[in-house]
Give the backbone structure.
Amino acid sequence: MRLFTNIYLLVFFGFFQACYFNPFVQGIVNPVEEEEDSSALLLGAAVGLGSPGKVKLTGQVVDSNGTAISGGTLNIVNRTNTSTDLDDRVNLDEGGRFYLILTTGETSFRVEQSGTEIFTFKLLIPIDGVVSVIEKSIPGPNLINLEFYSSGFTPEYFDIVLTTPHDNENLSSWPTNVTIIFSEPLETPSDLQTFLDANVITSPSITLQGSNSTLNSHILSIYNSSSFSIGTNTYRFGSGIKSNTGKSLAPRTITYICESPCNGS
């Protein structure tokens, strides 16, 4: 019996020794080293994401009425990360549009028009492709249609400069006409009704009558032959609208709030 026990112990010890020192089994019973390696990899990835890099950004600056800040300037006040060949000041075109070279991180701006400060704000860009507007000095003015673009390609847009009634206006009666002024003359469509049906989407649905609407260079006047609804009404102008130089419109949604009784104007 003692002999059988000794043999059993020797076999068990040999089996245990082979298993314990087997590299495959070690990975299961002793995973601490692998976890440390994984943590190091994750830390390296996080450090990589936090490294500053250059980005290119375009967008439009508008005031509290949704009107483009035409001919204004964007002045960089401060930035968390520095690099070479960054913009310190850029001019806004007729549509309030800018093209900027920045770094990831936070950048503080001052917007001016005719030498007068309009508002200040910060852009937060944690990584290329992600941006948010933070810490605006006053409510109302904003940056819209923000878009990153790559080196060697600069997107060309034209923009809505202003609308009558203005964007986000509260109305007690719905307007018979909505007038839109663009930053460039529009390509003349062969049929205005077809043009409106294809490029201007309203919600809730409003009947836009092409025969009573007009297009004169960069000014489009849309005749509404049906009423607004009480509450929020939107006009969505799509990128199918072209300038006479072939540029696409930066899509834009104009919002009106029609309060009760919301009668016709």
